[in-house]
Design goal:
This protein has 198 residues and is of the alpha+beta class. The protein has one domain. It contains three helices and seven strands.
């Protein structure tokens, strides 16, 4: 009986620790989108040299190819001990991120993909306010959560700097849908409302 009680306490402790680890600290909305959090660099992309954390929100239907929200999601990368990041740095981050994600997930799901075909482009948006830095980006990747077919993601990367704590945040909104699609209304609202306290 004592062993059963100890086991139960251990399970409850582990569950509580996991729940605390998964609690949103940065990306608290949309609350009805599936949430995930992990440390940087991610296990699937060890080539990323930044330490910190990443939080993600997946739109309902994100993992279903026949959904209007297929591969539509938002994520924020908190980069610790960083005071500046360039356009080239952001492109490098996206490239390593998606190559690693596609490679590892395809292997797990026994999908055949050519990671040399994964590319990323990043260009600074000119029509933003002086207080904002936003990049328009795209990534040619593979739909490794579905059938492994090629997917072109349209992305925007908003850069927020916390100079006092020497942190940079990359808020990334993404969807293969055209930016005239209704889903981008939601993504742009998330982009506009996201902020970090300094």
């Amino acid at each position: 009986m004592k062993n059963i009680s100890a086991f139960f306490i251990l399970i409850v402790s582990l569950s509580t620790a996991y729940a605390q680890e998964q609690k949103p600290e940065l990306l608290k909305q949309p609350a009805d989108w599936e949430f995930e959090r992990f440390s940087l660099p991610p296990g699937f992309a060890p080539g990323i040299t930044y330490s910190g954390a990443e939080e993600l929100r997946f739109a309902p239907g994100m993992f279903h190819k026949d959904s209007a929200n297929y591969f539509t999601y938002v994520f924020v990368a908190q980069l610790d001990n960083v005071s500046a990041i360039s356009q080239t740095d952001i492109r490098d981050y996206l490239l390593k991120y998606y190559k690693g994600l596609c490679s590892v997930t395809a292997k797990d799901r026994k999908l055949a993909i050519d990671t040399t075909q994964i590319t990323a482009t990043v260009e600074k948006l000119q029509n933003t306010s002086a207080k904002e830095t936003i990049y328009n980006a795209s990534a040619n990747i593979f739909g490794v959560f579905a059938d492994g077919a090629p997917v072109t993601l349209k992305l925007e990367v908003k850069v927020l700097t916390d100079a006092n704590r020497k942190k940079i945040y990359l808020l990334i909104i993404a969807s293969p849908r055209e930016k005239t699609d209704a889903v981008w209304t939601t993504l742009y609202r998330i982009q506009k409302e996201f902020g970090v306290s300094e």
